[in-house]
């Protein structure tokens, strides 16, 4: 329960309205947690910490989120921007709050052997990090088995390229509209080499919201997690991700994390809110 309450506090601190939608995604509580509901004011008190038993502390290690405590962003603040100092982390959380440094490019980019919307052109955006690329190949092959041809449209994008894309959008639509649609340089997941935009022939290989309703888009929503990918910017979670719904943007996080995220209907932000809540709980337990 404390886990859950911490999460709710984290959400309200972040300025989000808590609602039943968030409740629905809460993970199963550890077996040792049998306390009844507490009010928010009780959380974090000495009294609370005393209630945690030794058995309870060990139980945290069985929490499916426990392995991910070590995979949170490590940060350094410069000029009011939070920069990620462990960007090679497969679970790196790059968003409007956490930036990649302009100097970061992934160490192990490869060109996956999949169908691209641009054919054989040797371009930067054909690349992904090795592990993500291998799983992308497996995912595209599995879709093919189901008679669906996926097309990779855009993968790795360097900081410099993102800057060009962003500037073009600002010129076309103005800065605030641009920020809604295009990531500010350093905040794009494409710079991690772990994201791929995907489309289909009947969408003209374009990145369209309607792709989510096609057999290819539906297949991905149901199966991507088996290959370690998540639909990153979900419909209805715009307030959390601070991005519009993107039916085409898939992010590699590894199979285990992707399955947890999929089963709980979380965004990557929500996943780490839960990881942070677990960490707080453990830290609280150790502080006694
Ligand atoms: Zn994308």
TrEMBL record:
Name the record gives this protein: D-alanyl-D-alanine carboxypeptidase
GO MF annotations in UniProt: carboxypeptidase activity
Residue ranges annotated for the D-alanyl-D-alanine carboxypeptidase-like core domain, each copy included: 126-255
Entry-linked CDD domains: LD-carboxypeptidase
Coiled-coil ranges per UniProt: none
Organism: Listeria cornellensis FSL F6-0969
Taxonomic superkingdom: Bacteria
Residue spans of biased composition, Basic and acidic residues class: 33-61
GO terms classed as biological process: proteolysis
The entry's keywords: Carboxypeptidase, Hydrolase, Protease
Family matches, as Pfam families: VanY (PF02557)
Transmembrane regions listed in the UniProt entry: none
Location of the region described as Disordered in the Swiss-Prot/TrEMBL record: 33-63
